[in-house]
């Protein structure tokens, strides 16, 4: 049986990220149309290209030169009333609860536990889909996928940094594996 190859690509940087704010449905902060020239042929045409529904993910997917299929399972974690807010403007007690209790959602959105369950369920659906899938998504989703693959406790969620436009390679052939590649 052919393995499932999953490449998770983090969306490009946004103005809110550069300002130290939580994400909202904003555009990317780059000449994404010009950058498309350098990324359009990075993956073969038979690769399944998926993306999260948010504008920043759709614009980043456009860098790869073709239409992506929007998959709601790849959506960013719902931060409720914290969307677009600076960390420094949040209630410090609420923020501390959210950072230390993965089941909490003081912002009124989705808890980290909920994001992790959603992503794990989505990844289980991919296990029977051989071939290469490239998914443009968000740091929260990539963190959740890594916790699932590495079987780490959810307490490790905030210890994973995901850079804009970074690629994370995962493979499934009876078990999920993290694959580190060189590009020398």
UniProtKB/TrEMBL annotation:
It comes from the Bacteria. Pfam families: His_Phos_1 (PF00300). Gene3D superfamilies: Phosphoglycerate mutase-like (3.40.50.1240). Transmembrane segments: none annotated. This is Histidine phosphatase family protein.
């Amino acid at each position: 049986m052919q393995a499932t190859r999953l490449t998770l690509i983090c969306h490009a940087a946004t103005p809110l990220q550069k300002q130290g704010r939580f994400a909202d449905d904003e555009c990317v902060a780059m000449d994404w149309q010009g950058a498309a020239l350098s990324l359009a042929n990075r993956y073969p045409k038979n690769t399944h290209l998926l993306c999260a529904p948010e504008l920043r993910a759709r614009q980043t997917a456009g860098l790869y030169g073709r239409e992506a299929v929007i998959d709601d399972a790849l959506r960013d974690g719902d931060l409720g009333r914290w969307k677009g807010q600076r960390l420094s403007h949040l209630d410090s007690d609420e923020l501390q609860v959210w950072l230390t209790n993965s089941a909490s959602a003081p912002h009124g959105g989705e808890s980290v536990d909920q994001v992790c369950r959603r992503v794990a369920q989505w990844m289980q659906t991919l296990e029977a889909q051989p071939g290469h899938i490239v998914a443009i998504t968000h740091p929260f989703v990539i963190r959740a996928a890594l916790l699932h693959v590495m079987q780490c406790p959810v307490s490790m969620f905030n210890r994973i940094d995901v850079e804009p436009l970074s690629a994370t390679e995962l493979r499934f052939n009876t078990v999920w594996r993290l694959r580190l590649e060189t590009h020398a």
